[in-house]
Amino acid sequence: MNRQLTSEVATALEILKQANIPYCKQLDCISKIGSLETQKTESHKTSKTTIIMEWILCYVAVASVLIMPLKTIGGFIGFISAFFLCPILNKMRIKMIIQKADYDGRIKNQRELLNQYKADTTEILNLHLSELSIIPEPYFRKYKVDELTEIIGMLHEILESERADTKKEALNILENDLHNLRMELAQHEILLSNSAIQRTIEYNAWQTQKVADYIALQNLFSPA
pLDDT of 41-84, one tens digit each? Predict the structure, then answer.
């Protein structure tokens, strides 16, 4: 075992694990921002639609007051409707403004946290550039922090298990292992896709048979 190389890779792995903590928090923030944006949009659509409908009803109520005398039943109902609907509309409008402000505030907070976690991740990596130099530069461009952490963990395992004695040998084995993993994943996805297709075919055949059985039953009891 090349103890010095193994130790250098282990050190780089620990640094990546540290950087991966704020990086994973970045992913969590991004997920929460997307969820809040969706909730905000849906809430705005619902509130807007409700207010439009209420305004239409209010307009009809006011129109009925103007068209029909207050003494008539229609005019009286229109007056009462307008009297109650206007305050309700105002409260709904205020509620919609408050909800939007609440969502905007929560989204802003998550964006600030996201920027902070990005800065933390970058700071950890920049503080340990010399220790991370054991990792080939293309790996930093090709992989994200969480992916790179897993990959360097694999590299460390290769060295610890004495599958390689030099950095070049270890990287070649690592690339071969990554290739095999990608092939296995691709085969797994193909199997899942084929399984889904097979289930669809079987379901369609079952539905077709049900229709055929129903038609045959109808023909059996229908008059000649």
Answer: 887 776 666 666 666 656 555 555 555 554 455 445 555 555 56
CA dist 104 and 204 (Å) reads 47
92 burial type by CB count under 10 A (0-12 exposed, 13-18 middle, 19+ buried): middle
User: Are the CB atoms for 170 and 155 separated by under 8 Å?
Assistant: yes
85: which 2 tokens?
Answer: 């609907």
Closest by CA position to 95, among listed 61, 50, 37: 50
- pTM here? 0.66
Contact call for residues 100 and 37 (beta carbons, < 8 A): no
In terms of DSSP H, where are the helices of 128-166?
129-132, 137-142, 145-160
- Rounded to 10 degrees, the C-alpha dihedral 137/142/145/146 comes to -130
The residue-averaged pLDDT of 175-186 equals 88
CA–chain centroid gap for 33, Å, is 9
Residue showing tokens 């129903």: 214
